[in-house]
């Protein structure tokens, strides 16, 4: 038992060090401008699309702003191709971030959290897909934070990946559309801006309802755990 706890603490410590490292990288990383990315992709040709997806996936591991990269994809490749490239990169990066969080931090969460956290864990096991879609629909919640945090929970990998893939499509298309149509300021540009607003408000409403349900589940778990402890 002591060995398992020691291993969990070492993993949790490594996870914290890793998070500090990626924050430092994000603060020191020089993100290219939209024009620089467009110029580079035009000169790189087909290979540029592959490199872009890999770079986007790696960037997803850090809290560095990714909206400018998505906008640049729209400017360089247009709405549909740009959206596809961003989606592939984002989903790959989300999977890697999730795996890191689960590998390094999940054991500590299981061993050192109380009944309320376990109640939320159980809820995510049952309703992980809906919860993940709701979280992804809110552009204001940092993408990277959700990735690592989800890895610490008991959400199923299938629900996490499917919820991520579905939930990020509208927001991704909106940001890419800003790049694809923004230079012309036509109807597509304003539709993209409107979509971002609708996503923010709608996702916030859904998330608020889920939080109320989660709070009720967690509150119900507290008394149950206390009774169980008294009877043991």
Describe the structure.
Helix 1 runs antiparallel to helix 5 (79-112). The protein has helices at residues 2-28, 34-44, 46-60, 67-77, 79-112, 115-136, 143-152, 157-181, 187-231. The two termini are 20 Å apart. The protein is an all-alpha fold and 232 residues long. It has one domain (2-231).
Mean pLDDT metric: 75
Oligomer category: single chain
Helix/strand order: HHHHHHHHH
**Which percent range fits the helix content?**
over 70%
Approximate shape? globular
Characterize the biggest β-sheet: none
Low-confidence stretches: 224-229
Strand content: under 5%
* Number of continuous helical runs: 9
Rg from Cα:
20 Å
Structural class: mainly alpha
Distance between the termini: 20 Å
How many DSSP-defined strands?
0
Total individual domains: 1
Give a short synopsis of this structure.
The chain is mainly alpha-helical. Helix content is 86%, strand content 0%.
List the helices and strands and how they pair.
Blueprint: H1 2-28, H2 34-44, H3 46-60, H4 67-77, H5 79-112, H6 115-136, H7 143-152, H8 157-181, H9 187-231
List its salient traits:
232 residues, globular, single chain, 9 helices, mainly alpha
